[in-house]
Amino acid sequence: MDEHKAAHSGGHPAGAGHEESDITIRPILWAAAGLAVIVALIFVLMRWTYVADLAHDAAQSPPANPLANTYGRQVPPEPRLQTQPVRDLNDLRAAEETVLNSYGWVDRKAGVVRIPIARAMELLIKRGLPAEAEGHQ
């Protein structure tokens, strides 16, 4: 009865033990070694295939033009992509600021000039819009 109580209460009866060796390590080591050999073989085969493919491509491609190195770097045809868009935008803004803040000819033959935007606003405030003057008369 004591053995029965011990078994149901979670305790071990006298003389009962546990497995001394739950797992054997030798098959795991053999499997790991086999896996390493397989990975190494796959690497060697892939490398061999890659080198053979490069050699095949080199043999099949036409020889390079001997004059290709003498041409140097050529500019591609228009339209070209922007290689430095930030600099291009800053240059555009600087050019626009110059136009907005300077005097210059728009059409010299017709006598049309460009004045700075600040001066144009001052004149507009002082003189008013031409349409206002025509509409009130």
Structure description:
This protein is mainly alpha-helical and 137 residues long. Among the domains are: 30 residues; 34 residues, no CATH class. It is 59% helix and 5% strand. It has a two-stranded antiparallel sheet with strand order 1-2. The model has no long low-confidence stretch (mean pLDDT 83).
Q: What is the count of β-strands?
A: 2
Oligomerization: single chain
Major beta-sheet overview: 2 strands, antiparallel
Order of helices and strands: HHHHEEHH
Instruction: Give me the secondary-structure category.
Output: mainly alpha
The span between the termini is: 126 Å
Average pLDDT over all residues: 83
Share of helix, binned:
55-70%
C-alpha geometry: elongated
Uncertain spans: none
Number of helices in the DSSP assignment = 6
Largest beta sheet: strand ordering: 1-2
SSE blueprint and pairings:
Blueprint: H1 2-8, H2 25-60, H3 68-71, H4 85-100, E1 104-107, E2 112-114, H5 117-127, H6 130-136
Antiparallel strand pairs: 1-2
Task: Give a quick summary of the entry.
With 137 residues, the chain is mainly alpha-helical. Among the domains are: 25-54; 97-130, no CATH class. It contains 6 helices and 2 strands; from the N terminus they run ααααββαα.
Keyphrases for this structure?
137 residues, mainly alpha, two-stranded antiparallel ribbon, 5% strand
